[in-house]
Specification:
Distance between the termini: 53 Å
Largest sheet: 2 strands, antiparallel
Radius of gyration: 17 Å
Strand content: under 5%
Order of helices and strands: HHEHEHHH
Length: about 150
């Protein structure tokens, strides 16, 4: 475990994001891997006691995805960090990004039962703001192209 990871895992926002990621991964694993052997995760964040008493219980595959996501979040260069879907720098490997997108689409709507209703509302509002910004930029680019 490197020093930067340990330092980042003491940041309140990073801890929140990693806990949300763990809850979403738990929802995915419960829904898709109920037949697999699962155990309490032993990721770097878990070893730092980031999860406290709510350490997720996942299958080996989901634990590997969670460990990857923890590292990506800890090493994110953006401040403030946008939602990954709205970021201009995609730091996830393609296969991990695809898995994360599927997992988020599945787990997001179910996450309110795990106490993430406010996070969901914030996500919807940020997504709306991001879409408006992209529309504004597109319109501006079209207007700039028409000036030439």
């Amino acid at each position: 475990m490197n020093e930067r990871f340990v330092e980042k895992m003491s940041d309140r926002q990073v801890i929140h994001d990693v806990k949300v990621l763990a809850d979403f991964t738990q929802i995915w694993c419960d829904g898709h891997h109920a037949d697999r052997t699962r155990r309490r995760v032993e990721t770097d964040a878990a070893l730092l006691d980031v999860y406290g008493r709510k350490t997720p219980t996942l299958c080996e595959e989901c634990e590997a995805h969670l460990a990857y996501g923890e590292k990506r979040r800890a090493h994110c260069p953006k401040d403030p960090k946008p939602f990954c879907a709205h970021c201009d720098t995609h730091c996830y490997r393609i296969e991990e990004r695809t898995w994360q997108q599927q997992m988020m689409r599945y787990s997001g709507p179910k996450s309110w039962r795990k106490g993430h209703a406010i996070d969901g509302i914030k996500h919807v509002l940020e997504a709306r703001k991001w879409r408006r910004e992209m529309e504004r930029r597109s319109a501006q680019a079209a207007a700039d192209t028409g000036k030439d």
